[in-house]
Write a structure and sequence with these properties.
- The complex is a heterodimer.
- Chain A has no helices and eleven strands.
- Helix content of chain A is about 0%, strand content about 55%.
- In chain A, the strands form two sheets. In chain A, strands 2, 4, 5, 6, 9, 10 and 11 form a seven-stranded mixed β-sheet that branches. In chain A, strands 1-3-8-7 form a four-stranded antiparallel β-sheet, with no helix packed on it.
- Chain A is globular and about 35 Å long.
- The termini of chain A are far apart.
- Chain A is mostly beta strands.
- Chain B is mainly β.
- Helix content of chain B is about 0%, strand content about 50%.
- Chain B contains no helices and eleven strands.
- Chain B has strands at about 5, 10-15, 20-25, 30-40, 45-50, 55-60, 60-65, 70-75, 85-95, 105-110, 115-119.
- In chain B, strands 2, 4, 5, 9, 10 and 11 form a six-stranded mixed β-sheet that branches. Chain B has a five-stranded antiparallel β-sheet with strand order 1-3-8-7-6, with no helix packed on it.
- Classes of the chains: A mainly beta, B mainly beta.
Chain lengths: ~110, ~120
């Protein structure tokens, strides 16, 4: 595997479910990011991790819970989501947090029913 | 309030002609700008960037122009090819540790423009 991978690629969940999104980067980068892209809206930054430490929580509701166990893996734990949380969730990584160029995974298309 | 805007949702161009994608921003503190390309079912991929100390950066068929006084950014693709058909996002960033107040390179994205290049 190369680059940034995300699993699953598609996820349908009910509002009472708990699920997790997984991201893995094979680039040796030290910073990882979660973005949300809703229909016809720009990408919105959710969380930033630098060397497994969270450096940004962009006013994200607590029903989204990130976890970064090491610099190669990033998770987004989901619980009691709302239908308006349906979106494309993109993971990205960069060499370090000050790097402008970010490398994105293919995203997870989430539908909350 | 959207700080980075791409006012054209879509653009259609004939193969071999020039494609011009536009982007406007409101925050004069932005000092680094990037263009990303996104194919369906894939994540955005970095295309080209420009620092605010320059007004032009060229990479093969792709050239980015920056007009700081107008707070306007454009991407020129010459000649356009059918494989260029994708969604193009512009993004702007503040210098980490600068007046923007973040310790990392925070990217602010536009909504994207769908480019279709017809054979």
């Amino acid at each position: 595997e190369t680059g940034v991978t995300q699993t699953p690629r598609h996820l349908v969940m009910g509002m009472t479910n708990k699920k997790s999104l997984k991201c893995e980067q094979h680039l040796g980068h030290n910073a990882m990011y979660w973005y949300k892209q809703s229909a016809k809206k720009p990408l919105e930054l959710m969380f930033v991790y630098s060397l497994e430490e969270r450096v940004e929580n962009n006013s994200v509701p607590s029903r989204f819970s990130p976890e970064c166990p090491n610099s190669s893996h990033l998770f987004l734990h989901l619980h009691t989501l709302q239908p308006e949380d349906s979106a494309l969730y993109l993971c990205a990584s960069s060499q370090d947090p000050s790097s402008y160029e970010q490398y994105f995974g293919p995203g997870t298309r989430l539908t909350v029913t | 309030d959207q700080q980075v805007k791409q006012n054209s949702p879509s653009l259609s161009v004939q193969e071999g002609r020039i494609s011009i994608l536009n982007c406007d921003y409101t925050n004069s503190m932005f000092d680094y700008f990037l263009w990303y390309k996104k194919y369906p079912a894939e994540g955005p991929t970095f295309l080209i960037s420009i620092s605010s100390i320059k007004d032009k950066n060229e990479d093969g068929r792709f050239t980015v122009f920056l007009n700081k006084s107008a707070k306007h950014l454009s991407l020129h693709i010459v000649p356009s090819q059918p494989g260029d058909s994708a969604v193009y996002f512009c993004a702007a960033s503040l210098t980490p540790g600068g007046a923007g107040g973040t310790s990392y390179g925070k990217l602010t994205f536009g909504q994207g423009t769908i480019l279709t290049v017809h054979p």
